[in-house]
């Protein structure tokens, strides 16, 4: 056993707190600022300037109504932070002190007791400073930081300026969209500041995007600690699964040591404790600052996505010892699993793009993740857990961290590990060329890649590193190719893959999203259908991104979600449609007097361009709304039906298509966007449509109403075959049953097959009817297909009744009963955005009842906390 004679702890970490901030015109000296008589404002750390000013009552919340513009001045000032550091006073000769800033946003200089200490200009790397000598006296010391405007002094790289000119010409030729004509500085197209921002390692979405405002965060966005360490420390460690053979896992252990004082005979003792309590240990000699070894784990408890098994996590304890003296201790949680990328030849043509977890091929079902707030430093662990939990509850098995945001806080990855959700991780580059021939920027990117790969390589949920978001796609549009040059090529094809290989060695790397390499598709292979992943923006944006289709009779038809049926991509890593947040969310953030369709405040919360882009689609699907309530309902219908249509199409193509990641899961602010969960964490109708379409076993119809044909497909994304009886009904909204048939189903695991077909002619598939399927034994959830646009369906007849009962503290049970067919039946809790629903936005046939359990309400919530309703629409009415 390690001895206890030395009572000093191996390591202590003390949070640095008590920060205050002051704004000043750029260029003032530390002496001038310290002498400034104005009061300093308490600073939120971790956090930023905006949220600190809001908390102090000095800034109207920029998300509310039109106050976004009132915050523009914040990015134009210097922001000074100060606090006091207390030295320990009893530092031993073999100890050191390090001041660790986990994240500084972004261009900052530091002074200690009036003397220059350091400078830093990368939001994505930590700043670690040895302050042993400065703080060893045990006295108080003044720490001062100055954050400068992040883009001050920069110039646009010539190659990036050339890209902008070329893109303008390309989009002008496309015509019909209106996007290029809008002011990109207000969020349409590419942000006006983006070319300049390519020289600074800061989140690109800061400068406004098509889903969020221009609100560049500034400040100390991650924790600050004063770390006291002994003569040697564990610098880093890596626990990775090399191979799985049957139930046996071969695990490689790597421990890296940073020695303050050199000494022989040190060992790294690694303990691996399984969820069952089984313990395995290894003692590894440290040589040249490194210890390596292997463990063979019999009957290993593997980490799986939540749908395939248990996301089992092992506790890891690493002790650095010198004899029996413990010098340092690190703890972690890891999963034993292997992840590979299968790019084998596809019998359909081209190559597969398929994730393989522990030897099991996957159909990845999930969404793209953007930062959970514009003010990235103030997102709580609880908020991360809630959002990742919503993804898990929607049957999602993968989240893609988008390259225009941030490398997330540890709480995000802890949630994905624990909840069994894989992570596709972009590096932080998005939507423009980058001056990759700049030596200084190369050094910053290399340091950033090393830090983030080391930081995240032990995460069980990490499935892929991807070089960027849409840089290749946009460069290809502009230049019709991807030759060597200072546009990012050196980053995405050299520096980043080298970092993944050197510091990880097991997680796959992919040059960008999208990316593909089939020469038959020319430069558009990057977003083609024969290889790699693709972004399916034919729908919503209305022109061809590589899937083909058209010409179309109208702009609305060009943007219609029916275009998903043309897409034969191998893995669809972005696709989506706009939908409004819940009406109650809008009412919390937009003044009632301003809340009207296409009012100034309404359009200010929609950063896509043109502001009425979705209207052309609504005109076809639902008709145009005449009130805010209708706008919320109609856009939710369009999104829900569109995502249902797209996911069902892509899943029927399994395994030729092996993944769908919806754009986007969440929101950065309370605006109109492609999210399926709004900023207040209220799920939209599209969320529940995805939850049903992402179920491990899916029954879906493929219908050609004009030809009078229909097929029923059953798709399995699990590891067991599906053997059941499907009950198929063709019924009228008036209650008439025109067809009922029982269909035997026997579908292999991981397969998608037609199990029933019908060719009764167009008259049999008229707008007053619908197709329905469910499983006699509940092997899959109900599936439904309408046979015309929503506005042409007779949804106004019948009635919906509901009864609310208290089921426990903070829990209500709402029983809904339909007379006639009720579409998009929903329960709402307008005053309680944290409420969660066991199901919602569902269809009920004549005489059907369902009980929705509402949780997350205040403990004393009464029956009046919820309401119920359904979609009526503008179509014809039939009386059942």
TrEMBL record:
Could you tell me which residue ranges the Glycoside hydrolase family 2 immunoglobulin-like beta-sandwich domain spans?
237-337
PROSITE patterns the UniProt entry points to: GLYCOSYL_HYDROL_F2_2
A Pfam family that the UniProt record links to this protein: Glyco_hydro_2
Q: Does the keyword Hydrolase apply?
A: yes
Known EC number: 3.2.1.25
Q: Where is the Beta-mannosidase Ig-fold domain?
A: 809-856
Residue limits of the Beta-mannosidase-like galactose-binding domain?
Answer: 39-222
Asked if the record carries the keyword tRNA processing, the reply is: no
Top EC class of this enzyme: hydrolase
Instruction: Drop me one GO molecular function for this one.
Output: beta-mannosidase activity
Q: Which domain of life is it from?
A: Bacteria
Catalyzed reactions: Hydrolysis of terminal, non-reducing beta-D-mannose residues in beta-D-mannosides
Supply the alphabetized keyword list: Glycoprotein, Glycosidase, Hydrolase
Q: Which Gene3D superfamilies match?
A: Galactose-binding domain-like (2.60.120.260), Glycosidases (3.20.20.80), Immunoglobulins (2.60.40.10)
Q: Could you say which protein family the record assigns here?
A: Belongs to the glycosyl hydrolase 2 family.
Q: What is this protein called?
A: beta-mannosidase
Source organism: Microlunatus capsulatus
